[in-house]
Design brief:
The chain contains two helices and ten strands, in the order H-H-E-E-E-E-E-E-E-E-E-E. It is mainly β. It has a ten-stranded antiparallel barrel. It is globular and about 65 Å long.
């Protein structure tokens, strides 16, 4: 038995429809990151706290006009293969950038809230995560994305230490591959 739907039943009244939001300048800023990238990372988080340098690739894709997702592959500081995934968007209702980061290197989901500087070059993403200094404690972190030009950007990862100072734990230099 076929069910017949009349047109007047299938159409929701106009006053019940949500107006679709329009992309803002903050969304356009994120689109600057879309593309294929190579990176070099330096970190003091190698085995036994030794400095380490690794390389890899990152692919950032647009999810419509509002979101981007990036997946990077390379080597972790301990030499094992690593895959990392970042999502970023601008939430108009919160008035700020939002996102997540997760990695094959750990089980913690990092949740970002971010702001951009007045020059529209530096996006600072704040989050809390497991402390590097005190087992079982959470600590503030920030990832800072700096646009150098259309083909270069830098990402620095920082944590707030027990000494009350921000410490750089890693720096990634990206170059556009395509």
């Amino acid at each position: 038995m076929a069910i017949e739907i009349k047109d007047e039943q299938a159409q929701a009244p106009a006053e019940m429809c949500m107006e679709m939001p329009k992309p803002q300048a903050e969304h356009a800023w994120l689109q600057r990151l879309v593309g294929e990238w190579t990176y070099e990372m330096s970190s003091d988080c190698g085995p036994d706290g030794q400095p380490v340098k690794v390389t890899g690739t990152e692919s950032i894709k647009s999810v419509g006009d509002f979101w981007i997702t990036g997946e990077s592959t390379g080597v972790s500081p301990d030499g094992s293969p690593a895959t990392n995934v970042m999502t970023l968007g601008f939430d108009q209702s919160q008035g700020g950038y939002v996102g997540t980061w997760y990695s094959s290197m750990m089980s913690y989901l990092w949740v970002y809230k971010g702001t951009i500087d007045a020059d529209n070059r530096v996006l600072t993403l704040a989050c809390d995560g497991p402390s590097f200094e005190v087992e079982g404690k959470m600590a503030p972190y920030r990832d800072i994305i700096t646009i150098v030009n259309d083909n270069e950007r830098v990402l620095t990862g920082n944590y707030l230490g027990e000494d009350g100072q921000w410490h750089e734990m890693m720096k990634m230099s990206f170059r556009r591959a395509s």
